[in-house]
Write a structure and sequence with these properties.
The complex is a heterodimer of chains A (279) and B (183).
Chain A (H helix, E strand, L loop, with lengths): L23 H5 L8 E5 L20 H13 L28 E5 L3 E6 L5 E5 L16 E7 L9 E7 L21 E9 L2 E12 L7 E10 L9 H4 L2 E4 L2 E5 L5 E2 L20
Parallel strand pairs in A: 4-5
Antiparallel strand pairs in A: 1-9, 2-3, 3-4, 5-6, 6-7, 7-8, 8-9, 10-11, 11-12
Chain B lengths: L6 E5 L3 E6 L4 E6 L16 E7 L9 E7 L21 E8 L7 E9 L7 E8 L11 H4 L2 E4 L2 E5 L5 E2 L19
Classes of the chains: A mainly beta (279), B mainly beta (183).
Chain lengths: 279, 183
């Protein structure tokens, strides 16, 4: 009889399909059960406790406050996403933890994976004790190092404390276009844990340090567990109806043609075409 | 399963996750004994049901048998554009096996595709080796894809942001929605 695979000894990296299960039993019991599908509670603004846009009262520096106000002024009236994700860029950290679509968390001793339905954004939180690498590959999700904490010393981990660095961009806090600094030196600290009174509620306390902010910005996001999930693909390019050409945002009509996104918007410059624009 | 970039396989008792670095594609292969659902939400990865087997009777699983249905499209086999049928009724059967000589570092996937664009099932074999020193990099389609489709034509957005033709003598796109404000 074959031994069952053990979740907490699952292989990361290109798979070895065999592994030793024996030591995993005791180890597995140390980790919390965060299986299933986690569905966002609250709106798609970064801080769910405040209204979106300027109502977020993000502690932006004067320079980035001006940038945000300019971005809001440029936003086409009927476009809700005023951020790089409109071009199918990943949300990246910390925005991905809004979980616009549901997410799944797979816990292993050396790494915890967070799999987001939207664009399959995939976070690896390393819990193997390795230090920060000297050279970090920059990524929208960054590089995350975590530490499991047993706060009440009962032998079971409750909280995953995470720090994320090594980010790339462009990223925004949410779809309103609230900017992070373009130097991408963001540091994000999280504390992820189940609600003390409800095992089907997960919380993520997210503290963002960024040069676009005058002080760290801390928000708490909440997720509800669906124990019998249906996973639906969310492929950005399938629903992409806008595109940026030479700095201008245009809409793609349902019949496949370019459309302006604001009154009197000029069409794209066709200087690389020998003949004029077709009609 | 060509895996242009690297892949990460996470094995748990109930689900095996197969994530490919290129475009963040994620497969979930359910190994919890579930039947096929009555309704499957169509997807590019399809819905995969698998079964672990210990074919060498060693006490450890060495083979994962997978069947995948419930597709959406458009899909093709590779970069040349070899098509699958637009009815998306493909059935794909896979047999993942660890390599007999180097089971820790090499595995194989025998992929059989049943599709209405084919006269008979098409079986190919692919192999994957473990990367000893892993550095995960993002490979995001949105970052380097500069092609746009307008009407029925492909165009290219150059590094300077201007729209460009992709073939000699190509007409610019139809700008019917811009009134008289043409450049």
């Amino acid at each position: 009889m074959a031994r069952p695979c053990d979740a907490l000894l699952a292989a990361a990296g290109l798979a070895a399909l065999t592994f030793v299960a024996a030591p995993a039993r005791a180890q597995e019991a140390k980790y919390p059960d965060w299986s299933g599908q986690w569905v966002r509670v609250g709106g798609t603004q970064f801080d769910p406790s405040k209204p979106p846009g300027p109502g977020q009262e993000a502690p932006l520096t004067p320079e980035y406050k001006a940038r945000f106000e300019a971005a809001l002024a440029r936003k086409p009236a009927d476009v809700t996403d005023n951020s790089p994700t409109v071009q199918c860029f990943p949300a990246g950290m910390p925005r991905v933890m809004i979980a616009v679509e549901p997410m799944e968390i797979v816990i292993m001793p050396k790494m915890t994976a967070i799999i987001h339905s939207f664009q399959n954004e995939f976070r690896r939180i390393w819990t193997d004790g390795d230090p920060w690498p000297e050279n970090m590959e920059q990524a929208f999700e960054g590089l995350s190092i975590g530490q499991w904490q047993d706060m009440d010393a009962k032998g079971v981990f409750q909280t995953l404390a995470v720090e994320t660095r090594g980010l790339s961009g462009p990223r925004t806090f949410d779809e309103s276009g609230l900017p992070l600094h373009e130097d991408n030196e963001t540091i994000i600290k999280e504390r992820i844990h189940l609600d003390a009174g409800d095992p089907d509620t997960l919380r993520d306390e997210i503290a963002v340090e960024d040069h676009a902010l005058t002080k760290p910005w801390t928000v708490t996001r909440t997720y509800h567990r669906e124990r019998n999930p249906t996973w639906v693909e969310h492929v950005c390019t399938e629903s992409k109806r806008t595109m940026v050409i030479n700095g201008e945002t245009y809409r793609l009509s349902l019949d496949g043609y370019l459309q302006p996104t604001r009154p009197n918007q000029p069409p794209p410059d066709m200087k690389f075409f020998k003949s004029g624009a077709g009609k | 399963m060509i895996d242009y970039e690297t892949a990460d396989v996470i094995i748990t008792p109930k689900i095996t996750y197969y994530w490919t670095a290129f475009s963040n594609e994620m497969r979930r292969i359910y190994t919890d004994g579930r039947p096929w659902p009555e309704k499957i939400a169509p997807s590019f990865e399809g819905y995969s049901v698998g079964e672990w087997r210990d074919e060498a009777h060693s006490g450890r699983y060495d083979t994962l048998i997978v069947e995948t249905r419930g597709f959406t499209g458009p899909r093709n086999y590779d970069g040349t554009g070899i098509p699958l049928d637009r009815d998306n009724q493909s059935i794909i059967k896979e047999r993942f096996t660890v390599d007999r000589v180097d089971p820790a570092n090499l595995f194989h996937d025998e992929i059989t595709t049943i599709d209405h664009a084919l006269t008979r099932p098409w079986t190919v074999n692919r192999s994957y080796k473990r990367v000893k020193k892993i550095v995960w990099t993002e490979n995001l389609c949105a970052l380097d894809t500069s092609y746009v489709i307008l009407g029925d034509e492909n165009y290219f957005v150059g590094a300077d942001g201007y729209l460009m033709p992709v073939k000699k003598g190509q007409k610019p796109p139809d700008l019917r929605y811009f009134g008289d404000a043409k450049n």
